[in-house]
Amino acid sequence: MLNSNDRARLDDLYERMRAANADSLGYPSAKDFDFMELERFLQFPVNNVGDPFADATYRVETRAFEREVVEYFAKELRAPQDDWWGYVTNGGTEGNLYGLYLARELYPNGIVYYSEQTHYSVAKNLHFLNMRHIMIRSQDNGEIDYEDLRETLKIHRDVPPIIFANIGTTMTEARDDIARIADIMDKLAIRQRYVHSDAALSGGYATLLEERPAFDFVDGADSVAISGHKFIGSPIPCGVVVAKKHNVQRIARAIDYIGSLDTTITGSRNGITPLMLWYQLRKLGADGMRKRLEHSLSLAEYLVSRLRQAGVQAWRNPNAITVVFPRAGEAIRSKWQIATAGPISHVIVLPNVTREQIDAFLNDMIAELPPKEMAWKTSG
Predict the structure, then answer these.
(1) Beta-sheet pairing, 253-255 with 260-262
(2) Which one, of 118, 113, 95, lies nearest residue 172 by Cα?
(3) How far is Cα 222 from Cα 238, in angstroms, rounded to an integer?
(4) How far apart (Å, rounded) are the C-alpha atoms in residues 350 and 333?
(5) Contact (Cβ atoms closer than 8 angstroms) between residue 338 and residue 25
(6) Number of Cβ atoms within 10 Å of the Cβ of 130
(7) Alpha-carbon distance values, 112 to 129, 131, 137, 365, 378 (Å)
(8) Domains of the chain and any CATH numbers
(9) What share of the chain is helix, strand, coil (3-state, %, to 5)?
(10) Burial of 192 (0-12, 13-18, 19+ CB in 10 A)
(11) From 369's CA, which of 97, 218, 270, 348 has a CA 20 to 30 Å away?
């Protein structure tokens, strides 16, 4: 039984987290969720060990709900009918690791190409998998430099390329155009290739945009990773990876101990997060997802407009919910938990963000401006 000091520490932690949660604008974690209806499932040791599409000996699991979540994303991503597979991951890093793992098994001598704006975890994944790789320049907006990619592919056209595409870079939410990349490889007569889409943030809503980015299976992807806690919302980091089934079958192994197939990165897997994603998707529905997107896009444009009116050189990529501006002062970065890299900072306008929060943030930003002329500069 906890003593009074332990309980006081928990109470203090709760209050600190509650306060911090209210003032976070710089990191991609949607907060407008309510999973109290699922609280009763926390009394069980829920474990989706093994393949979500295969039976297992252990039955305290949520595989049926996990399959529905994967099916939802497979349809949204226009995965090939009867040739898709996937599972709920611990987040984008695991989904990206899985895509690279499949690519390595297909092309052991392949070279991974990724832009300099790629998430820091990808270099770690490449180290884990011991894969050859070449970094490609980025454009000013964060998108991959297609000419640099073309020229580099030409030099190594005898080696199968493994393209790691960013569908929403970390700082500017730039999206690499997979259709354009596929066209480059087609013109170079490169037939043996693999394309993975890191759609961590943007993948949660990109399929709903009127100008749909070129990032899914029809556009040329072989696997796609999406984060579940970012745009959709979850108290536990999670994600989904979808891949072509015939590629996954190359790595599948039957495991007697669990009575299932070993096709995922981890053995034991979280069985609560698939339930949470299923619950959120069912509760929101298609209309709810569109309303969330409309809210975020509208408020992001409002923030850009107001910052520019105040003299701040703010900008965002087309149909992005990430607003970029010159490096904010330390007080603002600390209060609003603003992500910053080099000369730029950003705010991510997730569905939970309100007009009141944006106005409060704007007031703080304007209060820090020089009295006459904005001194900050940005290459955006």
Answers:
(1) antiparallel
(2) 118
(3) 21
(4) 18
(5) yes
(6) 7
(7) 11, 7, 14, 40, 30
(8) 11-32+285-368 (3.90.1150.10), 37-281 (3.40.640.10)
(9) 40, 15, 40
(10) exposed
(11) 348
Residue 47 sits at φ, ψ, to 5 deg, of -145, 115
Q: What's the pLDDT score for residue 55?
A: 85
Nearest to 99 by CA among 75, 118, 82: 118
Return the amino acid letter for 27.
Answer: Y
**Token digits for 260?**
């299932």
Amino acid at 146: Y
pLDDT tens-digit readout, 151-169 = 999 999 999 999 999 999 9
Q: Which long-range contacts (CB under 8 A, 24 or more apart) does 247-256 make?
A: 247/102, 247/105, 247/106, 247/222, 247/223, 248/85, 248/102, 250/102, 250/105, 250/106, 251/101, 251/102, 251/105, 252/51, 255/50
Kindly report the pTM of this predicted structure.
Answer: 0.93
- Burial label, 2 (beta-carbon count in 10 A; 0-12, 13-18, 19+): exposed
Q: Give me the count of residues in the chain.
A: 380
Residue 164: phi and psi, rounded to 5, are -105, 105
Packing angle between helix 120-129 and helix 92-106, nearest 10 degrees? 40
**Distance between CA 274 and CA 267 in Å, rounded?**
16
Residue with tokens 């705010």: 347
Count CA within 13 A, CB hemisphere, residue 369. 21
Q: Which residue has the tokens 């693999």?
A: 194
Tokens of 131: 């894969």
pLDDT in tens, 246-298: 999 887 775 554 566 788 999 899 999 999 999 999 999 999 999 999 999 99
Q: What is the largest CA-CA distance in the chain?
A: 72
Give the C-alpha separation, 260 to 252, whole Å.
Answer: 10
% of the chain exceeding 90 in pLDDT: 89
Are residues 25 and 239 in contact, defined by beta-carbon separation less than 8 angstroms? no
Q: How far apart are CA 75 and CA 262, in angstroms?
A: 24
